[in-house]
Specification:
single chain; 245 residues; 42% strand; alpha+beta; four-stranded antiparallel beta sheet; 20% helix; 11 strands; elongated
Length: 245
């Protein structure tokens, strides 16, 4: 007896392998496939700035601002004072020179004594000058000091001219060569001398007396002789002035 014939279902080659109810991914793969592995990177958060550092920066900024403000206020005050008082430097001139002593001692020291006539002019209309103690006047020949002295203390008022006679004395050691140079200059009739003044002063603005300042003057002189007890002729004279705090 022959076996019964078996019938096998034939699958349609055009039918889809996935049922219509199943969803697909973009690549055509089933949605049930596992997603790709992703590595997570931890996020690092910066630490907040410390309060102490912030306070220091704030204090520094305030200090700089106050200093700038103070500088501006001082500049404004100085500008107003300048416009009101119109300050001018005092003027000085060397009007006369008399040598009472200039000789060489037995110890080869040069003894010198000069009388210098100085004229001080204050051209300011609203400013007075107090000449304080501690001044110094020196006479030099080629950077070698011959004699020195000081100005007296006095007050010079507005638009005032004061004539002073200052006595200067000094002694120079081992001065044989120096005296020979001075004598050679005297024969030529042209002896260069330098007179330097260091004078502390106080400025008076109206009724206000300012702090002490240093006044400096340097005068270059050329005289025709160094004869003692005679009036010395001043052939040329030029002075420069500086005022420092």
């Amino acid at each position: 007896m022959a076996d019964p014939q078996r019938i096998h279902p034939v699958q349609d080659p055009e039918a889809p392998l996935v049922s219509s109810g199943a969803s697909k991914s973009e690549n055509g793969d089933p949605a049930g496939q596992y997603p790709p592995f992703q590595r997570t990177i931890p996020v690092m958060h910066s630490k907040p700035p410390k309060k102490k550092r912030s306070c220091l920066c704030r204090c520094f900024c305030w200090t700089i601002s106050l200093l700038l403000l103070l500088i501006v206020i001082i500049a404004i005050v100085v500008g107003i004072l300048f416009l009101v008082f119109r300050p001018k430097l005092p003027k000085y001139s060397i009007d006369g020179l008399r040598i009472t002593q200039l000789n060489l001692t037995n110890s080869e020291s040069l003894s010198a004594a000069f009388d210098v006539n100085i004229t001080a002019r204050n051209p300011n209309e609203k400013i007075g000058i107090y000449y304080e103690g501690g001044s110094r006047i020196t006479v030099l020949y080629t950077e070698t000091e011959l004699c020195q002295g000081s100005l007296p203390k006095f007050y010079q008022g507005h638009e005032n001219t004061t004539v002073l006679t200052v006595e200067l004395t000094g002694q120079t050691q081992n001065a044989t060569g120096l005296l020979m140079e001075l004598q050679a200059e005297q024969q030529r009739g042209s002896i260069p001398l330098t007179l330097k003044v260091r004078q502390p002063v106080r400025i008076k603005l109206g009724k206000l007396k300012l702090m002490k300042m240093k006044f400096r003057a340097t005068c270059n002189l050329v005289v025709d002789s160094l004869d003692t007890n005679n009036e010395i002729g001043i052939r040329s004279s030029s002075c420069k002035f500086k005022l420092r705090l």
